[in-house]
Amino acid sequence: LTVFSVSDCAGRLLVRFRMGITKDNIWMPVLGRFVLFPLIICSIKGIIFTNDVLSVLFVGGLGMTNGYVGTLSIVLINDACEEDEQGVAGTFTGFFLNSGLVFGATIGLVADKLV
Fold first, then answer.
1. How far apart are the first and last CA of the chain?
2. What is the DSSP string of 54-92?
3. Which of 43, 36, 31 lies closest to 69 in space, CA to CA?
4. Using CA of residue 90, residue 86, residue 17, residue 33, what is the dihedral sign?
5. 30-42 confidence digits (pLDDT tens)
């Protein structure tokens, strides 16, 4: 949890460096994050990755991309909207952000029981 939180904060601090990510290509790093989930599960189960250092690296990568990509996608949402639609987009962004947190926590509880 500490590794994830520290990595998440570091990722949020790096948002000012866009690294070529725009509203048109933000979907690529978002999809790229999904690779980390099976890696973490394999590491937990000891299927392929048995070294604890790899577990820490995978969780750190998930935290870093959560902070960076998650924050950057929220920042870039206003670039995809017309100026008169930005208020409504902000409301929907807040709603779906909080819904995602609840949904993710629920999935985590279910996955804990299944895995």
1. 18
2. HHHHHHHHHHHHHHHHHHHHHHHGGGGS-GGGHHHHHHH
3. 31
4. positive
5. 999 999 989 988 8
